[in-house]
């Protein structure tokens, strides 16, 4: 009896170990080099320039696309708006496939394909295709942009030293800030004075400038084929080891002590029956039944050890979702500026200030991001991001109560600091939370929630505006900023319980 109990305990222990593959040891030297390495590496500089090229292309075309569809195709406003929003829909869809594609193709090869596709799809605007084809091109262009932006963010953030994540992400995001300032200005200027064909040619050339910088990326640090092959081989060997261990354990304890005892007893009964000449009538029946029972238990045990992650888990990083949702709330509020600031400014007679609103907004981001990034690394997220939420809320209140140009521009500065800080520091938190092998999924998840915020904002707010008016809309957006702050406090408290390094 004692021996059986011992065997059962040993079998149970081996069973529990069979489903767990110990992680490979992490080199302390590698960890130190990652945390203390240089920030301005080749990949960081080239990746930032690539991001600037694709962001400028995106904003140059986004701000004129609705007007282009109205003027050239004479379509209804709803169809013209779809020509613009189809890009956002394509971007959102691409976030789900970008991380799996990086794992299959590799970061640098995928980035090369995505940038080349952006160049080709931008050139297609010159074909003056029917509006239905234009919507399809916009959707495909959005997918290419989404894959490109997610991949380049993964390449850059993977090489930023752990101790300088906030600073590095802040500098990297400046490329998007510059693109959001230069792109709309250049796009509107060329559309009004040089015509749409010239605009499409220039935007095509701008994104093509990113190709040399993509080719200049360091393949070893951008996810080379050799590195991926080594990683796959290591994972394959680990899986084979786990499977072999499971097979050994299944033969003993994983079928369950009851099933194994039943099988042994049935075997004895079969031998006694054969000795008495009864053949298969008694013992064989029991023996086959016991074998079937043991096989069933064995099959269940094997399947529990070999369960693969779902498709959703391959595309979404759960640990990043809380902070991504907080940033998504801020971008939901930001969408009210993109959609309704121009008609609101015209209503209150401040169109002149509204025309340079986003220039001042981008200037505030450009000035504050390097400082907020370094402060994030030294002090942590709370002292830096907390004021940013209140700055966002104050900016929205100032927009709602504006009576002169200076108030609009002051609101732009407050909102630039608020949105820019939450975006860059939120991304720094996301890439610090995620493990290295889930970094691409973490980037995709974070940007996915930003896209959702910007994408659903116009749809929801478009229903609300006729009911409450523009002024109360912006008061409500100030409330959204305060709700996001409360959510941030809750998220940060939970993170502090899980991490003693970054959130101490």
Molecular structure report:
By secondary structure, the chain is mainly alpha-helical. Helices cover 86% and strands 0% of the residues. α1 packs antiparallel against α11. The longest helix is centred in the C-terminal third of the chain and has 60 residues. The protein starts with a helix and ends in a 6-residue tail after the last helix. 45% of the residues are buried. The N terminus and C terminus are likely disordered.
Structure in a nutshell:
By secondary structure, this protein is mainly alpha-helical.
General shape: globular
Helix and strand run: HHHHHHHHHHHHHHHHHHHH
Task: Count up the helices.
Answer: 20
> Share of helix among residues?
over 70%
Mean pLDDT equals 76
Distance between the termini: 52 Å
Unreliable spans: 1-35, 224-239, 241-257, 279-283, 296-307, 500-504
- Helix vs. strand class: mainly alpha
Beta-strand percentage?
under 5%
Q: Give me the Rg, rounded.
A: 29 Å
Question: What oligomeric arrangement do these chains adopt?
Answer: single chain
The strand count comes to 0
- Biggest sheet, open or closed, and with what strands and sense? none
